[in-house]
Amino acid sequence: MVQLCVNGARASADGAVVPLSPEAVADSVAEAVAAGATDVHVHPKTPCGRDTLSARVLAATLEAVRARVPASVPVGVTTGAWAEPDPAARVARIRSWTVLPDHASVNWHEPGAEETAAALIERGVGVEAGVWSGTDGAALFLRSPLGPKVLRVLAEVTDTDPATARGSARTLLSDLGPAHGRPVLLHGEDGGAWPVLRLAGRLGLATRIGLEDTLFLPDGGRAVSNAALVAACLGEYASARRDGR
């Protein structure tokens, strides 16, 4: 599985290539799926470019994306605390959604993670357990009674140094252990994005790529689109997979 992480918390300051509006997101997703992405993770944005859990904005984004991609491609969203800091308000937002994503990520180190995940599960939305390196997310997730119920674990390496990100990834995977038997998607960010992606290939783990995680191609050139990143990802992953056998 190669998940497309469309835009993340990036904004217009990161360049016009980052899609923000529902229409721009849908265009970018359609191109990336055509390039080989098989799953989508998007951050719905307000008109001013801020991440939001608003039912209206989420519905507009999901409907725009689903109109452009096959029904077989799952589409998920974030529930990051930066989009709604108050845990109770975050749960209320989820309960107000009129159009549901296929899955939503929940960062397990954030306050209210258990309640957020429970609200999603109650609504039939798959939960991606976001476990970040450098946090107590792994320990909290392994103690969680909801762990066996999540769709997958997003093992997110926050170490952006390309020289050490792989080591940080291996430590995070070790901390996760059996991860309640759930599938693990391993990815990095910024300078660590490509080294961690190659490690995922060598280990045969699912991964993701997109403008949320990096603005640059493996050769250091600026990415012109999510589709370009997906195409590069498939090549890097296949090469690393061969090396890992």
From TrEMBL:
Coiled-coil segments on the chain, per record: none
The name this protein goes by in its record: 3-keto-5-aminohexanoate cleavage protein
Organism of provenance: Streptomyces tendae
